[in-house]
Each structure stands twice: as structure tokens, then as C-alpha cells.
From TrEMBL:
Biased composition annotated in UniProt, kind: Basic and acidic residues: 688-715
Family matches, as PROSITE patterns: HEAT_REPEAT
Polar residues composition-biased segments: 771-783, 821-836
GO CC list: cytosol; protein serine/threonine phosphatase complex
Organism: Vulpes vulpes
Protein name, UniProt field: Serine/threonine-protein phosphatase 4 regulatory subunit 4 isoform X2
Sequence segments annotated as region (Disordered): 688-745, 771-851
């Protein structure tokens, strides 16, 4: 298990008001110091010394700068060494690398660090073979391991540890292992012996057990008994890697005795290292070793921990989960109880010392101690799921509920943040007992810190599903009674997120709200959440938040089966967004249309949103028309032939109008690309409707049971088998030639019209086609479409009674326009597939919208 990320990391990119003022002050300071900076520019003599002949090649320039340049230029060359190796490895090794060796002998800290990184990059990029790398770079790395600066020495050590992974055994033995014998002696510096410890830990996995036992383990034992506690601690932490390389038997006979001795060391850091290594190696030891050797050590360590340094408590609290897992089944009942009480004590460590003093009045050492206590409680929260397994979930209420309550109400944000991260794991472990922590869920949802809320909502849908289906209240009608405060807590959480500057938390919360149809009733959603989604879409200034609200609203609508409520939502979407005065709202309407195409059936979109969407081709704002052009291929994908032939004609007329009348060059360019894409698209065909019409044309009766299937929300295949005969009734109901011929003819005509408009010999003069006499009649028909167009629309299936014809401008009365397919496909299954539905006429009016 790994520790949770720090609470501050979740809000690293969010800027508060105070930080913004801080940035403004910094900018003001920069303007103040701008003049002195300009006065301190390089003199002509300095510029002359820094100038290099531009005709030099990269290799020659690098050699010159390393030989005669300044330190900053040499550092730049070394940083550029991986590029030179990729470009010309042979010349770089022959001419540049020797100069790098010379410079590094007297180089400063910055150049040394840069060289260590560059050497590692060359290894990772495999610019040369392993043999060449070892021959050219290894000795340079080994030479600088003993650098007097600890940071430089550690940087070269990290490079060497990566090199050890790829070097062959013989090279490792001669170049690294053999010299290590002398470097690990007491006569060497502490830094040299520390480096030897880490190298030994890495070498163990590269040799066989016999070599390790004969050549490496003697060095390991010597360093474990070093006179310096730093060396003993460092070697102790490498024993885990060594144990993995030598196997179980040698670990029990060699490593375990050393760990036992180090666990009794006089140095607290050595004892801590021994304890952590023992915990990490628990799986290696058998049951006898755990019960007879390790358990007494752990017991002694826990008893002495409160008397020792607080850092030991921090480590102990962090490893409690592994300890419980590794020693599970070994504890006696008395030991089990004592260990549990020890954990409970750690969970409240420092809370008893709370007082009302001002933080400025508390001594620094007390503040530091309280910070360590907070870390202990945070680690306890992190290990809480492991403790549930330790006590058995059945005993949670009796043994751990009070501790869980304290962690959820802890006064420190990092503790509550960590328990919020673990809340989902706790819920899964409790299973049928999840109802026990309902109140704590509400508490964390109402937490004043948005960091806690952000951590909780990562798994909010899964938590709510467990809450609604698990426990004693698993019956559908009892869902809400088990979570009486859930809805107020969710709405309050959203309002707090909206009022903050942390829009990512707000966006995430709105996305998670999409699970609510599975948790609460549609009436609750309609009255408590739907209008809020509208408000966010209309008023929020953050685009990702608006889109999240739009998608969640579409999901709410998808699962709402009440006709009146659905009717009202659709009407609001069209009137307040699609026909809104603000172009920003109209853009959000197109986003909503995209979500509707994704979530709903094709027939639903065609019935309610097809015409309002393509009506935006008349929008006065270029950005709206441009966004619509990008959406048109998805809009066309919702159509089916032959049922939606009239809608396809509407779409083509809108595209032709854009081609001829569009004045904005960016929009026109997108229109032309969209025409190509639309023309390449294959139309979906309604097999059910085609079979109906085929049987009608053949004079056979049609069985209603054959076609009384529910429309699923899946996409219809784009093509049908060629063996299916297809026919389409004419306008007057008479039989016509096969639909396949008609489709080919229609596609040919459409392709010709698009090609004539989009790919005319005079490609750049399409916007002037309205003035050409050859297209006078066509332009007249298009302009006529912009004013009025009579189309057939079936009855609105949201109403059981017949609705009167309504204009597509969508007035505020309850009736909605319907542009469904000729088959009468709708949400109401009773009216689906009805042949008796009489079409009605509606007038499509162009809307004048203000940007």
C-alpha cells in the first residue's frame, strides 16, 4: 500500500484571491527591477568572449566551448550531450567526451549534476551499445561517486544504479564488485561506505546465490556492524533487496539474525529501519518465525514507541496495515485485543491536548509535535480498511465504529481527506452493514473543506449504489428512507463547489450526479436537481462545468418517464438555449444536442431536436454556425431512409444555403469540408419499415405483432444485406421502383449538387453563386426556404390526445413540434409503429437571434 497523495496536491492548479494578488505584486516588483537589469547587460568585451563562429559544426562548437568557453557554456554543452550522441555518436565519443572528462575534474556542482543527468539520458535512450557505454562512460561515473558534495555524489550514484541494471556480470564483477571491497572498509569515508551499501543492495539481484554468499554477504555483515549509525541504518534498509536475491533459506539464516540484532540497536533510526524491513519481509518468513521471533519484536516495538521519538510513531502507524495482514491468525485473543487498543489510541493521539490557545502562543516544539500527531492520525485513517479486515466486518459496529466516527470528525483536514479517500473501501468491506456509516457519508459531503469533498466524490456513484442497495433497506421503495439527508447534503455540496474557485471539483461533482437516477426517484431529481442544471448551463462562466451540467441534465431526462416533465424540459432546452438571445446559450444548445445524440435514440433526436438544431444555420453569429457545421455529420447519422427522407432534404437545403450565402471565410471553409464528409456518409435504412412497405406493395396483410417491438437506444446498422428487396411508397401511396435505385439516384443528385457548389472550377467564388444566372432558380428556392417551408410532421407522442399543429418557433404553450419519422416512432410504446397516425403541417420559420 502506498500513502495517499497530500491534500494540497488536489488543489495545486486552483488559484485563490490571495494568490492572485501575490502574483500582481510580483509583477509590480518585476517592473521596478527592470531598469537595473537592463543597465547590467554584458559589456562589448564580455559579448566578444561569449561569441562563437556560426560556421562551426555542432561537434566543433562543443569542443571549442569546453576548451575555451565559460562555465555556463560548458554546462550547456554537457546538457546537450544526448543530442550530440543521437546525431553523431562516433565523433562525440572521439572528440567531445574526452573534453568532458577533463572539464569534470574541476567542474562545479551545477555542471556535475548536469553531467550525471546527461549520462543517464544517454543510457536510457540507448544511443550506443552497452559495451560501448561501459567502456566510455562507466569509469567517469565511478570516479565521481566520492565527490565531496553529497548532492553530486547521490546524483552519480543514481546514474550508476541504473547502469548496473544493464551491465553484464563480468563487467559488474571487475569494475564494481571487486573495487567495492576496499570502499566498504572502515578506513574509507562515511559517504563512501553509504554508497557501498546501496550498490550492494543493487548487485544482489545480478549474481547467483553462491557468489552472493561468498563475496557479497561478508561485506553486508561488516556494514551492518559499522561504527556509524548512519551506515548501519542504510545497510539495514538494503536487507530487503538482499533477501529477495538470496532466497528464503539464506534469509532465515543470515538476514533475520542481523535484523534481530539491529532491532535492538542503540540508534532509534537503526531500530526504525529494522522494524520497517521486518514488516516488508513478513511474507518471506514462515508461521513459526512470525510467531516466535517477529511477533515479540513487534510487541516490544509498539510498547516502547510512545516513549520514543514521534517519528517512530509515524512509521509504525503507516505500517499497521501490512503488520495486521502479515501477522493475521497468529495473535492470541489477548494480543489481538491489545493491538486493537493500540491502534485506537493512535487514532486519537494529540486530540486530548487540544486547547483554545492561539497558535502564535504555542511554543514551536509543541507545534512540531502536533504536526507529527496529525501525520499519525492520517496514517491510521489510511490503514482503516485493513483494520476492518483485522477485526472482521461483522464486529465493526462494536469494535471500530467509534474510531471511524472520530476520524470523520477529526479537526484536521488531512485526516478527514484520507478517510474520505478510504470511504469506498470501507463501504465495500462492510457490505450489508454499510447502513452503519450513512451519517458519516452525510458528514463528509457537508465538510467545510472542498479537498475532503473532492476526495469523496471520486467514488461517489459506487458509494451511493452500495448505500441504496446494501444493508437492511435494500428494497427499492425504501431507498430514500435509508438516506433522509442525502439530497440536502448533495445540493449543499454542489453550491459550495460552485461558490469556490475550484471549478474542477465542481465539474467532477456534476459528472458524478449522473448516477442519481439509479439512487433516487425521478421526482426528486426533477424538483431538486434539474432546474439547478439549467441554471448552471445558463449562468456559469466555466465551459467544462457547463458541459458537465448539460450532459448530466440529458441523463436526467433520459431516465425521466413522466411525459409532462419531459415535455417541459425539452421545451426549456429549445426556448432558453436553442432560441436564447445570447449566442453563448445557443452554443450550449449544440453541445446538448451532441449529448442527446449520444445518449438517446436516433428517433428521439429527430423528433424533437433535429429542426431546432439545423435552424441555427440562420444564426447571425459565425461561431454558432461554425459549431453547427462540425455537428452536422452526427446530425445526419440520426436519419434513416425512407422514414426521414424529408429531414434529409431539409438538411441538404441548409447546407446548400450555407455554401451560397455564407460570408465568413472560416465558416465557409468548414462548410466545404463538412460537405465532403456528409457526401461520403452512408445512410442508415430502417429494415422494419422497409419490410412493412414491401409486404404492403406485395398485397400481403401486415401482422401488428411482428412490428410491436420496443425501440432500443442502440444505433441502427448503416447498411442492409443486398438480398433484402426494398421499396418505398410514393407521395400518393402508390408503389414505386426499388428504394435502392432511388437511393442511388438521390445520392447521385446530391453528390452532383454538392460537387457543383463545393468543387466548381471557380472554387473561390462560391459565395457569389447567388448572383449567377445559371443558379437563379436554385437561389430563389433556397431563399424561399429561409422564409417558409411546408413539411409533414406526425403527432406528438408525449401526449395521448391529438395535439394541434404548432409552429417550429416553439411558443411557451405546452405543445411541442414533432419531427418524428413517418413510422410514428416515439417514447410511448403504444403509439410506436402506428400506421394510422395522420401527418400534420407546421411552418418552419427562420429565427432572428441576437448574438
Amino acid at each position: 500500500m502506498h500513502p495517499p497523495p497530500p491534500a494540497a496536491a488536489a488543489a495545486a492548479m486552483d488559484f485563490g484571491q490571495n494568490s492572485l494578488f501575490g502574483y500582481m505584486e510580483d509583477l509590480q516588483e518585476l517592473t521596478i527591477i527592470e531598469r537595473p537589469v537592463r543597465r547590467s547587460l554584458k559589456t562589448p568585451e564580455e559579448i566578444e568572449r561569449l561569441t562563437v563562429d556560426e560556421d562551426l559544426s555542432d561537434i566543433e562548437r562543443a569542443v571549442y566551448l569546453l576548451s575555451a568557453g565559460q562555465d555556463v557554456q560548458g554546462t550547456s554543452v554537457i546538457a546537450n550531450l544526448p543530442f550530440l550522441m543521437r546525431q553523431n555518436p562516433a565523433e562525440t565519443l572521439r572528440r567531445v567526451l574526452p573534453k568532458v572528462r577533463e572539464v569534470l575534474h574541476v567542474a562545479g556542482v551545477e555542471m556535475q549534476l548536469t553531467a550525471a543527468v546527461s549520462f543517464l539520458t544517454i543510457l536510457q535512450e540507448e544511443s550506443v551499445s552497452v559495451h560501448t557505454y561501459a567502456h566510455s562512460f562507466l569509469q567517469v561515473i565511478l570516479l565521481h561517486l566520492d565527490h565531496r558534495d553529497t548532492g553530486v555524489s547521490n546524483a552519480w550514484l543514481e546514474t550508476l544504479l541504473s547502469v548496473i541494471e544493464v551491465l553484464p556480470k563480468e563487467t559488474l564483477r571487475h569494475e564494481i564488485l571487486n573495487p567495492l571491497v576496499s570502499k566498504a572498509q572502515l578506513s574509507q569515508t562515511v559517504q563512501s561506505r553509504l554508497v557501498s551499501c546501496k550498490i550492494l543492495g543493487k548487485l544482489t539481484n545480478k549474481f547467483d546465490a553462491h557468489t552472493i554468499k561468498r563475496e557479497i554477504l561478508p561485506l553486508v555483515k561488516s556494514l551492518c556492524q559499522d561504527v556509524e549509525y548512519e551506515v548501519r541504518s542504510c545497510m539495514c534498509r538494503q536487507l530487503e533487496n538482499i533477501a529477495q536475491g538470496i532466497g528464503t533459506e539464506l534469509t532465515k539464516s543470515v538476514v533475520l539474525p542481523e535484523l534481530i540484532e539491529l532491532s535492538r540497536d542503540e540508534g532509534s533510526s537503526v531500530r526504525l529501519a529494522a522494524f520497517e524491513t521486518l514488516v516488508n519481509l513478513l511474507d518471506v518468513f514462515d508461521t513459526d518465525d512470525r510467531s516466535q521471533t517477529i511477533l515479540p519484536l513487534v510487541k516490544s516495538f509498539c510498547e516502547k514507541s510512545f516513549k520514543a521519538d514521534e517519528s517512530i510513531l509515524i512509521s509504525l502507524s503507516f505500517h499497521l496495515g501490512k503488520l495486521c495482514h502479515g501477522l493475521y491468525g497468529i495473535f492470541t485473543p489477548d494480543q489481538h485485543l491489545r493491538f486493537l487498543e493500540f491502534y485506537k489510541k493512535l487514532c486519537t493521539l494529540g486530540l486530548q491536548q487540544e486547547n483554545g490557545h492561539n497558535e502564535n502562543q504555542i511554543p514551536p516544539q509543541i507545534l512540531e509535535q502536533e504536526k507529527k500527531y496529525i501525520s499519525v492520525r492520517k496514517n491510521c485513517a489510511y490503514n482503516f480498511p485493513a483494520m476492518i479486515v483485522f477485526v472482521d466486518p461483522k464486529n465493526f459496529h462494536l469494535e471500530l465504529y467509534s474510531t471511524f466516527f472520530c476520524l470523520c470528525h477529526d479537526p484536521e483536514v488531512p485526516v478527514r481527506y484520507t478517510i474520505a479517500i478510504c470511504f469506498y473501501e470501507v463501504s465495500k468491506l462492510l457490505n450489508s452493514g454499510v447502513y452503519l456509516i450513512h451519517k458519516e457519508l452525510i458528514t463528509l459531503l457537508q465538510d467545510e473543506s472542498l479537498e475532503v469533498l473532492d476526495a469523496l466524490i471520486d467514488h461517489l456513484p459506487e458509494i451511493l449504489e452500495l448505500m441504496s442497495t446494501g444493508g437492511e433497506s435494500s428494497v427499492q421503495e425504501n431507498k430514500l428512507s435509508s438516506l433522509p439527508d442525502l439530497i440536502p447534503a448533495l445540493t449543499a455540496a454542489e453550491q459550495r463547489a460552485a461558490a469556490s474557485l475550484k471549478w474542477r471539483t465542481h465539474e467532477k461533482l456534476l459528472q458524478k450526479y449522473a448516477c442519481l437516477p439509479h439512487i433516487i426517484s425521478s421526482d426528486q431529481i426533477y424538483y431538486r436537481f434539474l432546474q439547478r442544471m439549467f441554471t448552471i448551463m445558463m449562468t456559469n462562466n466555466v465551459l467544462p462545468v457547463q458541459k458537465a451540467a448539460s450532459r448530466t441534465l440529458c441523463i436526467f431526462l433520459r431516465y425521466n418517464r413522466k411525459q409532462e416533465q419531459r415535455h417541459e424540459v425539452i421545451q426549456k432546452l429549445i426556448e432558453q438555449l436553442g432560441q436564447g438571445k445570447s449566442y453563448w446559450n445557443r452554443l450550449r444548445f449544440l453541445d446538448t444536442c451532441e449529448f442527446i445524440i449520444e445518449i438517446f435514440s436516433k428517433s428521439f433526436f429527430c423528433k424533437y431536436f433535429f429542426l431546432p438544431a439545423i435552424e441555427l444555420t440562420h444564426d447571425p453569429v459565425a461561431n454558432v454556425r461554425m459549431k453547427l457545421c462540425y455537428l452536422l455529420p452526427k446530425v445526419k447519422s440520426t436519419l434513416k431512409i425512407p422514414a426521414d427522407k424529408h429531414l434529409l432534404q431539409q438538411l441538404e437545403m441548409c447546407v446548400r444555403k450555407l455554401l451560397c450565402q455564407e460570408k465568413d471565410k472560416d465558416v465557409l471553409a468548414i462548410v466545404k469540408r463538412t460537405v465532403l464528409e456528409l457526401d461520403r456518409m452512408e445512410m442508415s435504412m430502417d429494415a422494419e419499415q422497409l419490410e412493412k412497405e414491401k409486404q404492403q406493395n406485395d398485397g400481403r396483410p401486415v401482422s401488428d405483432k411482428t412490428f410491436e417491438k420496443k425501440r432500443r437506444d442502440t444505433k441502427t446498422p448503416t447498411t442492409l444485406p443486398k438480398s433484402i428487396p426494398i421499396s418505398v411508397p410514393g407521395p400518393s401511396g402508390t408503389s414505386t421502383p426499388s428504394t435502392s435505385k432511388e437511393i442511388k439516384k438521390s445520392k447521385l443528385i446530391r453528390s452532383q449538387s454538392f460537387n457543383n457548389q463545393a468543387f466548381h472550377a471557380k472554387y473561390g467564388n462560391l459565395d457569389k453563386c447567388a448572383s449567377k444566372s445559371s443558379t437563379a432558380g436554385y437561389t430563389s428556392s433556397v431563399s424561399g426556404l429561409g422564409k417558409t417551408s411546408v413539411i409533414s410532421l406526425p403527432d406528438d407522442s408525449f401526449r395521448t390526445r391529438n395535439a394541434s399543429s404548432t409552429p417550429t418557433s416553439f411558443p411557451s404553450n405546452p405543445s411541442l413540434p414533432s419531427t418524428s419519422r413517418g413510422t410514428g416512432n416515439s417514447v410511448d410504446p403504444k403509439s410506436s409503429g402506428s400506421k394510422d397516425t395522420q401527418p400534420r403541417k407546421a411552418t418552419l420559420k427562420s429565427r432572428k437571434s441576437n448574438p
